[in-house]
Amino acid sequence: MLAVSGVLISAVPSAALAHPHGWIDLSVEVMTDADGNATALHQTWRMDPFYSLVVLEELSQGEEANLDEGLDHLAHEIRDNLAAQHYFTEVRLNGERQALGEVTNYTALARNGRLHFMFRLPLAKPQPLKESELTYQVFDPTYYLEVVHEAEDNTVLDEALTLRGEYDCTLNVEPADPDPELIMRATMLDKDEQGEPGLGRHFAETGVVACR
Predict the structure, then answer these.
(1) Record's InterPro entries (predicted)?
(2) Least C-beta-crowded within 10 Å: which of 52, 79, 92, 181?
């Protein structure tokens, strides 16, 4: 697993930097409107256990510590930091990259000892799903952070990718297939180093919503 991204690090206490590796378990719900257009990706990021432990412990420290207020502040900072990186998300419709809107609906929660960051990422314009293929990737460009869909025994869970609404669509999460040379370069990165911009794309899973 790879280290927590600097984009997220700037929003959390400095003690979290002590751990050199981190990852996110991802689930995505593709949201639609009444006309069958895709409107947004509702994402849930479940942070790795160590990262979650450190952050939640620090947010709970102090005589007047308020965990809920701390989580609200943390969510705001994470949202602001990710905005400059397009929320680590690329969306395409029939191969054409789609513009994204601004995230205004977001929250951070603590569940079963894990930190969850949940947000609704709108498309700039609703896009028709009928006879179309919508794909997305969620990744840290420098691969300082690993993002993988929720899975059990190396099998992606059905709830890792869902579609809101009744449509004739097939949902699938395609695994990454990086070149062996890229894998070697990534494994040789020191715990304090980032990969070159764009490296993370090669390790990103691809969510696919193919509709008739």
Answers:
(1) DUF1007 (IPR010412)
(2) 181
